[in-house]
Amino acid sequence: MQVSVENTGGLEHRMHIRLDPEPFEEEFGKRLRETARTVRLNGFRPGKTPVKEVRRRFGASIRAEVAVALMQSSFHEALLQEHLQPAGTPTFDPGDLEAADGFQFTATFEVFPEIELGDLSGVRVKRPEAEVTDTDIDAMVDRLRKGRTTWSGVERPAREGDRITADLAQCGDGDFHHEGMSFIAGDEFFFPNVADAALGMAAGETKRITSTFPDAMADETLRGSESEFDLTVREIAEGQLPDLDEAFFASFDVGAGASAEGGERAEDGEGDDGESDDSENSGEEAFRAEVRKDMGGRLAATIRARVATQVMEQMVDLHAFEIPNCLVEERLGQIRSELPQLFGADGDSPAPPAAAMDIARREAEKSIREMLLTRAVIEREGLTVDAGKVRGRIEELASSYENPEQVVNWYYSQDTLLQRVESDVLREQVVDYVLSVADVAAVPSSHDDVMAGQPTADDPAGAARDEDGGDGAQGADPTDDEDT
User: Fold this and answer.
1) Confidence class of residue 274 from pLDDT cuts 50, 70 and 90?
2) What are the distances in angstroms from CA 264 to CA 254, 260, 277, 308?
3) CATH fit for domain 120-132+292-483, picks 3.10.20.90, 3.40.630.10, 3.50.50.60, 1.10.3120.10
4) Hey, which residues does 127 pair with through a beta bridge?
5) Which residues contact residue 5 at a Cβ distance below 8 angstroms, ignoring those fewer than 6 apart?
6) What topology does CATH give the domain 2-110?
7) CATH class of the 150-240 domain in this structure
8) What would the pLDDT profile of 133-187 be if each residue is shown by its tens digit?
């Protein structure tokens, strides 16, 4: 096998490979004989088809199959010989399959960049420090209660906090209308002024108001424009918050055990001295303890994610290198394929807006840079995945299930899931290593600020993440019933 490699610009390489004719013809003859033994042709008994007839009918396609197989096998052999690591799938260009001097082909591909890591002590990290306070728990319990609000229709003008069902129709030549929208009177709403305008209105009443089309409107021509609307109230419902009782705790699978313990203490004679039974308090205490545990776990995870984001962003800022375009295009292809699912479209969907794909490309390039830098740290420092941390992560994921051990065993039986957890753990190990040499400053913060993605002091990157909707960690909602 003769191999020559040329750099065609940037990370792209073109490899020319020529094989001696003997291996190709030997493999071609072998496949002809195998086909002759298995093919069924009219006029010939099974297994008795002459090789000459097989060559006449199927020679071209069999020769092409042999060429594909040899291109793949010899290409990988040539990569080892030339010490090259392709970043994506190569493009093969076969030559003359009938050439007497041997089979020749060309493979075009991109390689991973050679990254020389700089001084990682130049990484500056602001680690937010916060804890879950009793005030935070009070606010969370209130949110959970509001999530269990029961609504009943009322025949009176709307008051603050009522749930309003209404129609909104643009006046004049405008054709925008929204029927049956729901919002809380006096609260913030998608359309400014609408929720406040509903205060004092009765069911069936219509009021003309002025509002502004939100920037998230699908019709770009409407975004930010002011218009007059007719607001018609259909229904007014009054909310009733649930009591902090056994039924409320049971709806979150929390507190039942503590209440049972309280009942046992009463049966044992505790409380006979005239003091009231504290079973309800025990149930509420257990519920608040579980809420604290859940909020604390989410807070810690969010802090870890924000610190990791700072580490990765600064590593990217400290290193300039070219990235394989094939990896970017692969990621953009995944995004395009996911767009119909994200928007609930069936069949063919229109091409995504150019601005959206420009943002997606920047995010894809950033993600690939982080991946390549992570690999470089792993290779330079000889990091290997910590099996104990992998086990701990899987047990953490399984802890919310009824049979955690069964879930743990299932994770270890699924290679794809296990590799995903190992990859996440190894990335965390890289972050931990960088933190061990970086300049890390603790910045006092609060639970709400951390979970809302508020930037830490002197953290412009955090501010940018906040404007874009956060760094991805704060997306977890502590009011999620199933997680609480």
Assistant:
1) very low
2) 18, 6, 11, 48
3) 1.10.3120.10
4) 442
5) 13, 14, 15, 16, 82, 84
6) Alpha-Beta Plaits (3.30.70)
7) alpha beta
8) 999 999 999 999 999 999 999 999 999 999 999 999 999 888 899 999 999 999 9
The percentage of residues in the chain with a pLDDT greater than 90, rounded to a whole number, is: 56
104 forms beta bridges with 18
Distances (CA, A) of 83 to 4, 70, 88, 111, 323: 13, 19, 16, 11, 19
Range(s) for CATH 3.10.50.40 in the chain? 150-240
Residue written as token pair 């020529």: 18
What is the structure's pLDDT at 457? 60
Question: Which residues does 277 contact at the CB level (< 8 Å), separation at least 6?
Answer: 262, 266, 271
pLDDT per position as a tens digit, 330-388: 988 887 777 655 544 455 556 667 777 888 899 999 999 999 999 999 999 999 999 99
Residues forming CATH 3.30.70.1050 domain(s) in the chain: 2-110
Say which residue the tokens 């970043």 belong to. 87
Residue 290 above 50 pLDDT? yes
**Sign of dihedral through CA atoms 356, 359, 361, 363?**
negative
Q: In the chain, where does the domain assigned CATH 1.10.3120.10 lie?
A: 120-132+292-483
DSSP codes of every residue in 378-423: HHHHT----HHHHHHHHHHHHTTSSSHHHHHHHHHH-HHHHHHHHH
- 27-47 in b/e form (b: 16+ CB < 10 A) is bbeebbeebbeeeeeeeeeee
Q: Which of 310, 293, 302, 304 is nearest to 474 (CA)?
A: 302
**Cβ neighbours of residue 44 closer than 8 Å, sequence gap 6 or more:** 50, 53
Report whether pLDDT(217) > 70: yes
Q: Distance between alpha carbon 3 and the CA centroid of its chain, in Å?
A: 42
Spacing of C-alpha 146 from chain mean position: 28
